[in-house]
Predict the structure.
Amino acid sequence: MQLKKQKGISRLLATATCTLLGTVSQQVSAEDWEVDSAILFYSEPDRVTAIEPVITLKKKFSEESTLNLGLTLDSLTGASANGATASNQTQTFTRPSGKGSFTTKAGETPLDDTFKDTRVAVSANWEKQFNRLTSYNIGAAFSKEFDYTSISVNGLISRDFNQRNTTLQAGLSFASDQIDPEGGAPIAFASMAAPGQPQPKQSGTKDKDTIDLLLGITQVLGHDTIGQLNYTLSDSSGYQTDPYKLLSVVDSVSGSTLDYVYENRPEDRLKHSIYANIKHHLSNNDIVQASYRFYTDDWGIDSHTIDAKYRFDLGNERYLQPHLRFYDQSAADFYRHSLVNTNPLPQDATADYRLGDFTAITAGLKYGFKLKNAGEVSLRGEYYLQSGDSNPGDAIGIQKDQDLYPDVDAYLFQINYSFKW
Amino acid sequence: MASPCELLVEDVDAITASRLTQLAFNEAKRIEQKFSRYRDDNIIHQINNAKGKTIALDDETVLLLNFADQCYALSDGMFDITSGVLRKVWTFDGSDNIPGSNQVSETLKLVGWQKATLENSSFTLPQDMEIDLGGIGKEYAVDRVFNFLAKETEASFLVNFGGDLRANHQRNNGSPWSVGLENPDQVDTAKGAIQIRQGALATSGDSKRFLIKNGKRYSHVLNPKTGWPVENAPRSITVSAPTATDAGILATFALLQGEGAEKFLKNEDIPYWIIR
């Protein structure tokens, strides 16, 4: 009862053992999920406060494909400028719902504190290696807050050249938004009715569709240097107006506020931007990064952004990274700090300070470290200050004593924790 | 598993050593609880008491039974996990209690892997037959624990469950792990040492289980086709292979060869140590 003379029974046995051990261990020790979690605290003193927890999950499903999932929660409270300017008198405004009102003291910039909103956003992206040099990424995103819903799909293709020293990317995305303002969308330049009085509004929900195009090149510039150049184009059409924003109408002689009218923005917006970035790894293990972005759109806004970061390597996988950002923006063609009663109504007008002429500076510091076998943590604090022309040349009468473009500042604090699960 | 199990890890702090030991213990315990034939609350008990009914199996059990099936084929029927019932007539306690041939042939009717059916993740065993994974279980546990630890640490470690062992790589100073071969006549003393850098070692033998009658030694390895112990089996065979499962099965196959153990192992061209 001898075993058949089979040379290599151990090889067949090894195959059997592989099946026994290989498959089973794959079942139990599946690839980990890489988790990136963060919570952001944002505060504009006396204005808006936001808390934003974010979680992203990333998992490799094979050597060639990865799934990325994201969940963001945004909770905003506080007050935001409603577009009316400060006056030498107390001002009363009707809340967007039409019920209730709020008052602003003389000399203060009116802030609407009806601002309590929560937004949820989810996204999913699938990255797949198409062949050795090419990969693609397709995804979808959905976000909802009580008066705004957005659905988008995106696709990106990447290809390497020059022994992988160059990567070209092309991407396209479509977004479809639905806006359902509280109380309904206002009629352009309609006067704000007193609290309790009927306010004529547009019926139905509003839409906005956006198409975005991205073209980019990433290039290895040296042994320790990498650069990136991107061009993006964005075309959106639909309801672009902010349904809660007003403009003050002032008397042509005294400058006193006579009326408030709802703003109106063009239906179409075409944006272009060019972004360049360079990153260099120094011999002492520090990293320096600088970028510049130029933006222009057909609303007349041009902007420049210069951003720089320097990461100090502190050893033991810890780092300290100061950050500085400088931003300058020119106003939209239809931006007005206020309207004058004797002038004809323009086709479009907004007093939203975010579309005005301003410069902003951000300074921040980030500290990061690794936990032994338990992930990475980083802490980031930033201070933001923007300012514009508080006393423009065309201020009339009492307006000359008011701050027609108040500074806005904000504090930001973020904790980030990345780990494998 | 009825044997001392140990984990040797080099150059880690106490917390990591504790964590790795806990991991190893948990997996070993899990396998023992799931596949031990001494328990009445696991799949083995279910199968052995099914009275001929078909039992649905989980993925891991399917894999193990498939593996047992392949070993049955590769060994030409000599490795048979249904041969465990023969222990009812054979008790290897060092005494001279040899069973009568009637007893053996009666019990032999309940032996034969070919009588069992494994298909579509279910298993059917004729009434009164039993399966015993004792010949695979310990080595399988070593490999499972090894795989878990290999994912958790880069440190040099060696998993040793009662003599079936596996190391991931040589020790930090470049030297191999030194393993003593137990003297079959003097249990718990070593008869020579084996140097191993990485891979597995498994030992099959009769060190603790045998019968002696009229000066003839009967090893506990039974020939499933005759119901009688394999004749002239070595006292102990130690085999080296990449995994503990491979090493264990090869050592068992060699032992089943009895007289031809050396020839078999030479033919396989693998490192081995035989004590006769």
